[in-house]
Design a protein that fits this description.
This is Bifunctional serine/threonine-protein kinase/universal stress protein. GO terms for molecular function: kinase activity. It is a single chain. The chain has three domains: 87 residues, 2-Layer Sandwich (Phosphorylase Kinase, domain 1), CATH 3.30.200; 216 residues, Transferase(Phosphotransferase) domain 1 (Transferase(Phosphotransferase), domain 1, Orthogonal Bundle); 140 residues, Rossmann fold (3-Layer(aba) Sandwich), CATH 3.40.50.620. The strands form four sheets. It has a six-stranded antiparallel sheet with strand order 1-2-3-4-6-5. The protein has a five-stranded parallel sheet with strand order 14-13-12-15-16, with helices on both faces. Strands 7-9-10 form a three-stranded antiparallel sheet. The relative contact order is 0.08. By secondary structure, the protein is of the alpha/beta class. It is built from 18 helices and 16 strands. A hairpin with a 5-residue loop joins strand 9 and strand 10. Helix content is 38%, strand content 16%.
Length: 482
C-alpha cells in the first residue's frame, strides 16, 4: 500500500509523518484528531504492508502482534493504545518510545568497549526476562528490535514472530516452516521448535558477538541448508576477530551461542547477572579460545545433531521457576556459629530442590572513608577479607551443578542494600537470619528482616537460630522417663 499523507485521519487518529518503512509494515507518528484526552506519551501507528507482492506472513505476523501486545505490561514494552479492524484497515497504535536501537552501536565505526557491550547486553537480557515472566518468547530479537532509552533500560519492539504460551501459535499453525530473521534465529527454531526462552538468549548472544566483533557469528544465510549449519557449527571465537575482547565476555557470548539449548544460560536473568558482574564469570575453555574448533569436532557435532530429537518447550514461567537466583545474606560480625549453620542448612535445602538455581552470597559492611592511597589499599584488603569469609562460609555446601558468586556491599542501611541488590539482579528468593545483623542493635534487630520481607520483590525466608543442644536435651529429659 502507498504511504499515507500527513493529516490523514483514521478512526480518530491523525497521521503526522512516516517514521519507518519496513519490509513488513509502515510506522507513522500519530496523534488524536480531536476530543480524546492526551495519553501522556507520544504515539505511533503500525500498518502492515498488504500489496500483491507481499507475503502472507505479513498479515499473520500482524495478527500475532495484535494478539500479544495488549497482554504485555511493564517498562520493557511499548504501551498498547488501540487496534484497527482486520477486515477494513488493520493497524496498531502504541506508545512511541524515544531512544536508539542497538543498530546504532553495531554500525558505529569503532567497536564499543567491553563495559558498554555488557551494559547493553544486560539491559536487553532484563527486558527479555520480563517477557519470559509473562510467558512470552520474542523469537525475533535483533539490533533493530531492541531500543535503548536515555535511562539505559531496554524496550523490545515488534512482536510479530513472538509466541505466547497461553494463546494459539498462529505462525506455527499457518506457516509450518522455520520463522525468524536468518542471522539471529536459534537452532531449535530452524527445526520448528518455538516457545523456548533460551532461543531469545541465543539471539542476544548473536547481538553481543556482533557488537564485540562487527561480524555475525553465522553470517546471514539465505537457504535452509545454511540455516541448519548452526545446529552443529561453533563460530570463530570473538577474540579471533577482536583481540581486545576480554576472556570473560567471550565466555558469556559463546555460552549464549551453544547449539544445544541446555548448554546456554538457563534464563535471561542468569545472563544479565554475569554481564553485570564480570568478575564473577566462571571461565572455561570457551573463554580462552583464540581459534575455532577443528573439523573433527564439527564432524562429531554434526553426527550428534543429525540424531537429535527436539522436544516441545515447557511454559517459560515453569522454566524460570526451575532456575531461580537465590540470594543469602551472610552476617559478618556478632553472629553465632549456630546462626551461620542454620543459614547454610536453609541454602542447602533450597538448592537441593532447584538443580538449576544460582547462588549469590552477599554480606553488607559499613562504608569506608578511604581518602589516601594507603586507605584505598586497606579498603581493598577489607573487601578481600570479607570475600574470603563468604567463600569459607559456603565451602561446606554442595554446589555441584550450581553457579555461585560472592558480593560485598557497602551501606549503612542493611535492609535497603539487600532489597536493592535483589531488585537489580532479578533475585527470586532471599534467605537471611531473623536476627543476625549486629547485637548492638538488638532492640531494633527485627527491622532488618521485617523491612526486607516487606520491601523485597521476591520470596523471603527468615532463618531462626536453633536452640542450643543442651536446651533441647533438657527439654526432652522430662519425657524420657515416661
Amino acid at each position: 500500500m502507498k504511504l499515507l499523507e500527513p493529516g490523514t485521519e483514521i478512526d480518530g487518529f491523525r497521521i503526522r509523518q512516516c517514521i519507518h518503512v519496513g519490509g513488513m509494515a509502515h510506522i507513522y507518528a500519530v496523534e488524536y484528531a480531536s476530543g480524546a484526552p492526551d495519553p501522556g506519551f507520544p504515539m505511533a501507528m503500525k500498518i502492515p504492508r498488504m500489496t500483491q507482492g507481499d507475503g502472507a506472513e505479513n498479515i499473520v505476523s500482524f495478527e500475532v502482534e495484535l494478539q500479544i501486545l495488549p497482554t504485555l505490561t511493564g517498562a520493557h514494552v511499548p504501551r498498547f493504545v488501540a487496534a484497527g479492524d482486520l477486515l477494513r484497515l488493520p493497524y496498531l497504535v502504541m506508545e512511541y518510545v524515544p531512544g536508539r536501537t542497538l543498530q546504532h552501536w553495531v554500525e558505529a565505526p569503532e567497536r564499543p568497549d567491553a563495559d558498554t557491550i555488557a551494559r547493553l547486553g544486560a539491559a536487553t537480557a532484563l527486558a527479555a526476562h520480563s517477557l519470559h515472566q509473562q510467558n512470552v518468547c520474542h523469537l525475533d530479537l535483533k539490533p533493530a528490535n531492541v531500543l535503548v532509552k536515555d535511562d539505559r533500560t531496554a524496550v523490545l519492539l515488534d512482536f510479530g514472530l513472538s509466541c505466547h504460551a497461553h494463546y494459539p501459535d498462529l505462525l506455527a499453525e499457518e506457516m509450518r516452516t522455520a520463522v525468524g530473521s536468518p542471522a539471529w534465529i536459534a537452532p531449535e527454531q530452524v527445526v520448528g521448535v518455538r516457545g523456548d526462552l533460551r532461543s531469545d538468549i541465543f539471539a542476544i548472544g548473536v547481538m553481543l558477538y556482533e557488537l564485540a566483533t562487527g561480524e555475525l557469528p553465522f553470517g546471514a544465510p539465505v537457504t535452509r541448508g545454511g540455516l541448519r549449519q548452526r545446529l552443529w557449527m561453533t563460530p570463530a571465537p570473538p577474540r579471533q576477530h577482536n583481540p581486545a575482547v576480554p576472556e570473560w565476555l567471550q565466555e558469556v557470548i559463546l555460552r549464549c551461542l551453544e547449539a544445544e539449548a541446555e548448554r546456554r544460560y538457563p534464563s535471561a536473568a542468569h545472563l544479565a547477572f554475569d554481564l553485570a558482574h564480570p568478575d564473577q564469570v566462571t571461565l572455561t575453555e570457551r573463554g580462552r579460545r583464540t581459534r575455532g574448533v577443528g573439523w573433527r569436532e564439527h564432524l562429531r557435532r554434526w553426527v550428534k545433531a543429525a540424531g537429535m530429537h527436539y522436544q516441545p518447550s515447557p511454559l517459560p514461567s515453569q522454566q524460570l521457576a526451575e532456575v531461580p537466583i537465590v540470594m543469602v545474606a551472610v552476617p559478618h560480625r556478632d553472629v553465632s556459629d549456630a546462626t551461620l549453620y542454620a543459614l547454610r542448612q536453609a541454602v542447602a535445602r533450597s538448592l537441593g530442590i532447584r538443580p538449576g538455581a544460582r547462588l549469590a552470597c552477599v554480606t553488607v559492611i559499613s562504608p569506608s572513608s578511604a581518602s589516601s592511597a594507603d586507605d584505598a589499599r586497606s579498603e581493598t584488603s577489607r573487601h578481600r577479607r570479607h570475600l574470603a569469609r563468604l567463600r569459607q562460609w559456603a565451602a561446606p555446601l554442595d554446589l555441584h551443578g550450581h553457579q555461585a558468586s560472592y558480593h560485598v556491599l557497602e551501606s549503612n542501611d542493611v535492609a535497603q542494600a539487600l532489597v536493592r541488590y535483589a531488585q537489580s539482579n532479578q533475585v527470586s528468593m532471599i534467605i537471611l537470619g531473623a536476627a543476625t545483623h549486629g547485637l548492638q542493635l538488638q532492640r531494633f534487630i527485627d527491622t532488618v528482616p521485617l523491612r526486607v520481607a516487606r520491601e523485597a520483590p521476591c520470596t523471603v525466608i527468615l532463618v531462626k537460630e536453633p536452640p542450643p543442644v543442651g536446651a533441647i536435651a533438657a527439654a526432652q529429659a522430662p519425657h524420657a522417663g515416661r
